[in-house]
Inverse folding.
């Protein structure tokens, strides 16, 4: 944004656009800061969002193809493991450590590859490598592998089949220590096609960890998981 | 607790019959939104499938404090359709793909004539900007570039449009 709005009319411009979800990221951040201090603008945003919701309801209604129901049922009945993430169940009782220095964004390190998981396994697995399969925790086709080696600082992550992200969300990798402490270990965005591959560093040695998992989180990157995990594996 | 919320709770617990019931209730709505944004039946089907799969996996994320289930679902469908379009086409939406207007032989979801009239009564340039942002997924900067008008003009058009619609909704609410 070239300048900060100087008056309420300029803020109202941004609020109206925000209600339609059309702001640039920098403007959204500026508006968020302003809203924290201005009750009138918060009310205006609520009003305009209400207007936008009404626009949603004015679209022409058409009949969906009848086969969609069977298609949906076929998809959800595909075999998949359904088990809750143990490490997410413990979230409420875990005190988060301040890990600012260790939580970094993996975006720059990520490379989308078309190779299969098996190829990665062959290329990375040295004689001492430990391979942790990552399994879907619900009815999604996601799977992956986390590979670490005792004494080495860098581990590798490969995951494929992650579902589409909601707008404004990222995938967050979590490492769960044996004492229950959860370390955020990096974020990455949607894997449109193929696999996500990343290198991962941890604040403590790998032998201190019990679980690894990935969940979808707001882009603001919470210190702890706030949603159900998508894939997970045990050290 | 509304019936919709009760259904979502059952879906969140893995109740397949609840998902079927919910799907029958809302599949037309979701498909309509996807088609409205994408104007392509095959992709609209993909989006619809994706929305309900998301719901199956994440029904527990619904927050009643943020609006009705129907509004939540429409928001997910609209955003997902815009996302699909960006992924598949790698091109911005064209105006003729997202034109506002009632199609023949279709029924409006909300027969709210006052608001429909208010939208129809908006100046064309205001309608255009609102539609490009909301159903086209463009930022106001992209709209300005696409329409070759100053950014401030786009901002004003959107503000004036929403302000007018807000007044209409307020009046309508007070009358009913």
């Amino acid at each position: 944004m070239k300048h900060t709005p100087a008056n309420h009319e300029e803020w109202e411009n941004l609020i109206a656009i925000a209600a339609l979800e059309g702001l640039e990221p920098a403007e959204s951040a500026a508006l968020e800061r302003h809203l924290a201090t201005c009750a009138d603008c918060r009310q205006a945003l609520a009003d305009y969002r209400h207007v936008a919701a009404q626009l949603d309801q004015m679209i022409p209604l058409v009949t969906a193809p009848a086969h969609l129901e069977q298609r949906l049922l076929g998809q959800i009945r595909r075999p998949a493991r359904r088990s809750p993430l143990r490490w997410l169940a413990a979230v409420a009782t875990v005190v988060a450590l301040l890990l600012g220095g260790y939580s970094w964004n993996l975006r720059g390190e990520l490379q989308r590859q078309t190779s299969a998981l098996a190829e990665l396994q062959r290329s990375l697995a040295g004689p001492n490598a430990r391979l942790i399969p990552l399994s879907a925790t619900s009815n999604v086709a996601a799977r992956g592998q986390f590979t670490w080696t005792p004494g080495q600082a860098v581990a590798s992550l490969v995951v494929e089949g992650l579902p589409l992200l909601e707008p404004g969300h990222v995938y967050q990798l979590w490492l769960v220590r044996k004492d229950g402490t959860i370390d955020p270990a990096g974020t990455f965005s949607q894997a449109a096609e193929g696999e996500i591959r990343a290198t991962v560093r941890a604040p403590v040695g790998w032998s201190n960890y019990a679980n690894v998992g990935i969940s979808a989180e707001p882009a603001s990157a919470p210190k702890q998981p706030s949603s159900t995990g998508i894939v997970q594996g045990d050290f | 607790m509304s019936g919709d919320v009760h259904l979502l709770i059952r879906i969140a617990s893995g109740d397949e019959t609840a998902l079927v019931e919910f799907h029958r209730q809302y599949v037309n709505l979701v498909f309509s939104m996807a088609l409205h944004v994408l104007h392509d039946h095959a992709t609209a089907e993909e989006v619809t499938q994706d929305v309900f799969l998301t719901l199956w996996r994440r029904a527990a994320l619904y927050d009643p404090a943020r609006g009705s289930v129907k509004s939540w679902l429409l928001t997910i469908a609209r955003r997902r359709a815009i996302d699909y379009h960006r992924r598949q086409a790698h091109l911005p939406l064209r105006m003729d793909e997202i034109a506002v207007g009632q199609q023949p032989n279709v029924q409006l979801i909300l027969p709210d004539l006052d608001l429909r009239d208010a939208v129809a009564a908006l100046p064309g340039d205001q309608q255009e900007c609102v539609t490009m942002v909301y159903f086209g997924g463009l930022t106001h900067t992209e709209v300005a570039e696409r329409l070759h008008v100053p950014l401030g003009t786009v901002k004003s058009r959107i503000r004036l449009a929403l302000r007018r619609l807000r007044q209409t909704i307020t009046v309508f609410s007070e009358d009913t």
User: Anything to note?
Assistant: Chain A touches chain B through 48 residues (CB under 8 Å).
